[in-house]
Specification:
Two copies of one chain form a homodimer.
Chain A lengths: L5 E5 L4 H12 L3 E8 L6 H12 L4 E6 L35 H16 L3 E3 L15 H14 L1 H5 L5 E3 L7 H10 L24 H12 L11
Parallel strand pairs in A: 1-2, 1-4, 2-3, 4-5
Chain lengths: 229, 229
């Protein structure tokens, strides 16, 4: 079977992008997973990404070292404490915001798509739970897609338009949990916590852990990851 | 004087981006130069970028290591011979095309602009001499600017629109030479050759050398760089 279309799938190792990879595979795409080693403090994510790519049958998995530290400006890459026990998740722009992160990630995905002959890129942005991140909004993704269709050799030479898929965009965390469960995603393989020093891997108190746990709770399911008591 | 607006200027070490930096300085911007060490074979460019940034009074100069080799697909980063003595420069998409290169470069510039509080980005793309590169065209730059204005925290919080300046866009190489000479750019500091092994630094026969020499000739000036006899 050589008739599968190829897609590039941004894979962080978190829950959301694992579900996106399962969705892309379910839609019949041969998937080239792309992860970044961007000096993040939560490197557990990269190990999770490798497990998830293998488990969900990605055709290839590229891990690109990119140096965001030279640019600075975020708790995920600079030496700022990861906030915990916040009661204002989703309001304003969080300290964990990384400048132009999705723009940089999508740009590498675009380059890899060109080299692999893919005209489809999947990204797990979510406009509801992450409303504080400008580069998770549908209007941003649409503008990126328009730009990408003018950016590359394939955009000049190919008949097929380049498409940026963001299937989670309008889903609540609970819907993402349910969708992943239906598609057979093993959530025990994924990693969400922002705190690199969390015992057992997950602190249960940073924004990422809180949103994840809330999602499982609302879906009426149990998160298979271990959390501190 | 703290009233200068800050701009991020993409600086390759080549002739064009040196002229762009001089234009941005002439327009009164405090300039944060940004160069990339992207595994290119013509690393002479980076040394040239450092000289040019200092000589033209850039406020800062960030050199970001980025790994394009993991993605591959071009004579500038992969192990493909640099073409020489071509008689079809400007026709079709050249082998020296790097997938999504300007998209990646501009994305890092956008991140640096956010961190430095800049709302202006300068890039030395040229739509005439480099018509084969899709990501040098004005419609691409306009689409990038629209996307960038939806991409970042500043785009949400700031009144000022983010502007991508491409002052060389409609200029012929000869015009760029003249403009640079008027603004006092020392072209002896710049480096254009694609061939990393060229004796004395410049082969005189690759696309970059041929376009550069033609520009000086048409401007009625002499390129100060040494070339093989």
């Amino acid at each position: 079977m050589n008739s599968e279309k190829t897609a590039v799938v941004l894979l962080s190792g978190g829950m959301d992008s694992a579900v996106v990879l399962a969705i892309a595979r379910g839609a019949g795409f041969a998937c080239e997973a792309l992860s970044f080693d961007y000096g993040q403090r939560h490197r557990h994510e990269l190990e999770a990404a490798r497990r998830v790519a293998a488990a969900l049958g990605a055709k290839g998995h590229t891990v690109l070292p990119i140096d965001m530290r030279a640019i600075g400006g975020s708790a995920l890459t600079a030496d700022i404490d990861v906030p915990k026990d916040r009661d204002d998740i989703g309001e304003g722009i969080p300290i964990t915001y990384v400048p132009a992160r999705n723009t940089i990630f999508l740009s590498y995905a675009l380059a890899l798509a060109e080299v692999k002959g893919a005209r489809d890129i999947f990204i797990g942005v979510n406009a509801l739970d992450y409303s504080g991140y400008p580069d998770c909004r549908p209007e941003y993704i649409a503008a990126y897609e328009r730009m990408a269709n003018l950016a590359t050799k394939a955009s000049v030479e190919s008949e097929a338009a380049l498409k940026i898929h963001s299937p989670l965009s309008e889903m609540r965390k609970a819907d993402i949990v349910r969708e992943g469960a239906e598609l057979g995603v093993d959530f025990a393989m994924t990693h969400s916590c922002y705190d690199p020093d969390a015992e057992g891997g997950s602190c249960g108190r940073c924004d990422a852990c809180v949103l994840r746990l809330k999602g499982f709770e609302e879906a009426g399911m149990t998160d298979p990851l271990p959390y501190p008591a």
